[in-house]
Design a protein that fits this description.
Length: 242
Amino acid sequence: MEVQDGFIVGVFNYCDRWCERCAFTSHCRLFADHAEMEAALDPGLKAVVDAAARAEEVEPQPAWMRELIEEINDACKEPLSREEWERIRPRVPPEQAAIDARARDYAVRTYRWLTESDRGLDSTPGSPHDVISWFHFLIAAKINRALTVRPDEDPEDRTTASDSDGSAKVALLAIERSHAAWFELVDRGIVPAGEADPFIADLVWLGEALERVRPDARAFVRPGFDEPEAIAMVLERQGGPR
């Protein structure tokens, strides 16, 4: 696990975006940047946001970053043609399209169920209803990312495969939590089994299909989340849990 300026590098790449229930927000650069943007929109914090940084806190841009910015600017001056973009556009392989389609279908049907059902479901943080609500679109998004490849992608490239495995792992964990949440609604008599069964069947099918396509997903080590010993060392150096 790599830590820079107190932030775990890449911790936000394979999380569930549920910041309110995350133990790593104080070590997440994305969360900090988002908080800074929110503060910039708060008139009460304008003086703090606009305060000039101390001279020793201002670091010049590294050469590689300046070169990257220049390359991006040059690329924007000559946009790709529609034909060229279609040739290099990342896409889900045809043999895996059914997985992607079923994940999207689960998301849409669950959204309709959530918005149309009127039975006084408990939506307090962490409730089964809350879990289902949070994960239904995230499952589809992470499955799509796990399956999407570039036409020129090397199947032996472990960097790309590793990123796909990480996205697949997040999807699998979200599927498991959603699966348990649907069962809890049934067990508590809040939702009839016949009403929940189609959604549960989708989740079971998606989990099994995704594991066949990404068999190494479970072994993927997410920065921070799957490194308890490294996290304990970071907290110890910083003087205990935060």
